[in-house]
Specification:
Structural class: alpha/beta
Strand content: 15-25%
Distance between the termini: 26 Å
Number of helices: 28
Length: 749
């Protein structure tokens, strides 16, 4: 693909000022604070971070100029006029918070980082753990040709995407892991550090060796030697060297000594340009490399198991977390009959060391009915989740019936489970907040169509990995979502979508089941919106001369983005009618004085140094309605049925849902999983904790306590912040505890 030229479409100051005068952003109770600390980029020439109108301008212009027609030699002026009009509509929609692209787009779109790295516009990725060629990618270790299969490749892909801030799902099912050859060689690993490095002393403590002393007695000609450049790619390639040297196919000379030189890696605390944050120094990488080398050395003459392969992925994820303020989001997908994989987190020592780094799920098909052991594990550990690959490959929406191999290359999912993905493929998300959009006068068909075209343009980004480019060009997969679903259904129809149940019998198992009855008005509404998305994609695909999207719709879990507009997260029920939402801030965050000044309770975090906790009182939409339900009191059966409704009439990808259950509902897990085995593509469950621990992120309260706390808040935090700072705030503040998804599975921003 050609590099993007200078923007041909831009939004005028006159237009933006007009929209600012006409439209008031629908900030939720946490909205502006969440935006300012998470998505407002630093503007060097103005010595401050963006305001919302500037963020939306950057985001929309960054997206609209991905239209491939603007990269042709002779651009039709009519195309520029049409796209300018579309950009104006998008701006109005997003500025008012009737819809937003993913948090990743809010942070990256239109920035210089987008031009350098198109991958950064996508939240999450999937890779199969089996030997693969690197192909024509931005990373190809120098000892390989691009077409040679290497055990390291999926781990290099994973490491690279995690360090870019993306989440990664990876498959360690038997059919993948069995393709990895036995470990052939025990490798002697030496890690060098120069005395001039500011990380010298700490690196020695991690097991590194003084570079000068080593060179006195050794020659780099006698070993495989790699001096890491101070880049993300250098970290990835060092790990590739280590993994591949253990296998005969990628170490044909049988060299048994590997020397990795860390002397050029920037020290802890140094700023990282582009995505932001600060460096960790080489210490986490040193620890990871020794750990992975020990794991592989312990398996010489043996094949790696799914647990071993997951451990390597988890060690990488642990390193990315330590290497920056970003959270590392991983989902490991194993086989449903792999007992060792299902129970691997019961090893508490390894769990605390690295196995916490992934959520684990198992791959099933619709013939699988032995959910007892899975349900028992969920009751005790909240894992594994379930991913039905057969449904993903052969179905879009359930109402459209089986379509053999409609998505036949699907092998797994992203960490939150809302998008089924082929090897190397990313999720590509945009979400509409229907209640807000309607309040602001939008026809929902138009709002969803604008989101469809936005996501379609993202597929024309510059992607680093050949495996991704191939999947994206073929599938053009998009994921148009909606959040505040519970709010909207209750507002529009006056009741929840499940209006009752009827007695029925499972035709295959003979078990008695309760079949949900859905509001027919909701069925019609969701079906119509789905068809509007498909039509918008078909029309735009014909215009661009590309493949129509293989799938179009989803329900993502949302999280930080839903807080902007103050709506319920994805399909989830509000946590409680009234609650305290706690958000954690670095103690130097310039927002803290303004939050204190207007009356929010601010206190030190009891778990983490240099971190402050701010308490926000929140009232859910319709909290006092007789039909309102929260995660604390809605039944597990209704949550399963609601997810099935959305999978049937709205989502042709999948529906991300973390079902919450009470202790007395645990015995319903296996029967409900069995009942919906022909409908639900992915699901996960967690026990409802309420206010289960000190400074919990969400704590239910009653209406009286909510009103008491609201009365303590006086003034507009945005205005106070501007007054305190002269609208000149600090640069490069590190973020903590912000995710793009409700359950914290996906990465920040």
């Amino acid at each position: 693909m050609q590099a993007m030229k200078l923007s041909s479409v831009s939004l005028s100051d006159e237009f933006i000022n007009k929209i600012k005068n006409e439209v008031t952003p629908h900030w939720g109770e946490l909205g502006w604070v969440t935006y300012k600390r998470t998505y407002a980029r630093w503007i060097p020439e103005k010595q401050r971070t963006e305001n919302w109108d500037e963020t939306v301008k950057r985001v929309v212009e960054g997206n609209i100029n991905l239209d491939p027609r603007l990269h042709e030699d002779n651009v039709d002026p009519e195309v520029i006029d049409q796209l300018t009009e579309e950009a104006q509509k998008l701006y109005k929609l997003i500025y008012g918070l009737g819809a937003t692209p993913s948090g990743r787009n809010l942070w990256i779109s239109g920035s210089s980082y987008q031009d350098r790295n198109g991958d950064a516009l996508n939240n999450c990725w999937f890779i199969a753990v089996r030997p693969q060629p690197y192909g024509d990618s931005h990373i190809v270790p120098e000892y390989l040709n691009g077409r040679q299969k290497a055990v390291s490749m999926p781990y290099s892909f994973m490491f690279d995407q995690l360090m870019k801030g993306g989440g990664v799902g990876f498959s360690v099912t038997r059919d993948n892991v069995e393709q990895i050859p036995q470990v052939d060689f025990k490798i002697n690993l030496t890690i060098l550090i120069d005395k001039t490095s500011k990380s010298y002393d700490e690196s020695l403590k991690m097991g590194a060796t003084d570079r000068e002393d080593w060179l006195k007695n050794h020659s780099i000609k006698d070993v495989r030697y790699y001096r890491l450049p101070d880049t993300r790619e250098g970290w990835v390639i060092s790990n590739a060297h280590l993994i591949d040297q253990h296998f005969n196919e990628t170490n044909p000379t049988q060299q048994l000594d590997l020397v990795l030189d860390m002397s050029d890696i920037r020290p802890k605390g140094a700023k990282i340009k582009g995505f932001g944050g600060t460096a960790s120094g080489p210490m986490p990488l040193i620890e990871m490399l020794f750990d992975i080398n020990n794991l592989l050395n312990d398996h010489v003459g043996q094949k790696l198991s799914s647990v071993d392969c997951t451990d390597i992925g988890n060690l990488i994820g642990k390193t990315v977390v330590a290497g920056n303020v970003r959270r590392s989001a991983e989902l490991a997908l194993g086989s449903a009959d792999d007992e060792a994989f299902i129970t691997m987190k019961q090893d508490k020592e390894k769990l605390y060391h690295h196995r916490w780094a992934s959520n684990n799920s198992v791959a099933v098909d619709s013939s699988f009915t032995d959910y007892g052991p899975v349900a028992d594990s969920i009751r005790h550990n909240g894992e594994p989740g379930i991913v039905n690959l057969e449904l993903s490959r052969n179905y879009g929406r359930k109402i459209d019936g089986r379509q053999e191999n409609i998505d036949g290359s699907v092998e797994g999912t992203n960490p939150c489970g809302e998008i089924s993905l082929a090897n190397g493929e990313p999720c590509n998300l945009f979400e509409v907040f229907p209640t807000v959009a309607e309040q602001e006068g939008w026809d929902l068909h138009e709002a969803f169509s604008l989101g469809t075209r936005y996501s379609k343009r993202v597929t024309f980004s510059n992607y680093d990995w050949e495996v991704s480019r191939n999947a994206i060009e073929k599938n053009r997969r998009i994921g148009i979502s909606m959040s505040g679903i519970q709010d909207w259904i209750l507002s529009r129809f006056g009741n929840r979508v499940v209006i009752g149940y009827e007695d029925a019998t499972d035709p295959e198992t003979g078990a008695a089941i309760k079949k949900p009855i859905y509001d027919k008005r909701a069925v019609k509404e969701f079906d119509g919106l789905y068809k509007a998305v498909v039509k918008a994609d078909k029309d735009y695909s014909e215009t661009l001369g590309c493949n129509p999207s293989i799938k179009h719709t989803t329900v993502k879990p949302s999280g930080t983005v839903a807080k902007l507009a103050g709506v319920s997260e994805g399909m989830h029920f509000h946590y409680a009618g009234y609650l305290i939402q706690r958000i954690r801030f670095q103690d130097t965050d310039p927002l803290l004085p303004a939050l204190k000044a207007v009356g929010y309770n601010v206190e030190p975090d009891v778990y983490t140094k240099n971190t402050m906790v701010v308490e926000f009182p929140v009232r859910a939409a319709h909290a006092d309605s007789k039909d309102f339900a929260s995660a604390g009191n809605v039944s597990i059966a209704e949550q399963f049925a609601t997810q099935a409704f959305l999978q049937t009439y709205w989502s042709d990808n999948a529906v991300s849902c973390t079902v919450t259950f009470q202790p007395n509902e645990g015995d319903q897990i296996a029967p409900l999983m069995t009942q919906y085995r022909h409908t639900t593509k992915s699901t996960s469950l967690l026990p409802y904790t309420g206010a289960g621990f000190k400074q919990a992120p969400k704590e239910p309260i009653d209406q009286k306590e909510y009103e008491k706390r609201v009365l303590q808040i006086s003034g507009d935090v945005a205005k106070v912040f501007a007054q305190q700072n002269g609208n000149h705030d600090k640069k490069d503040v590190e973020l903590v505890d912000q995710t793009d998804c409700a359950g914290g599975a996906c990465p920040i921003r």
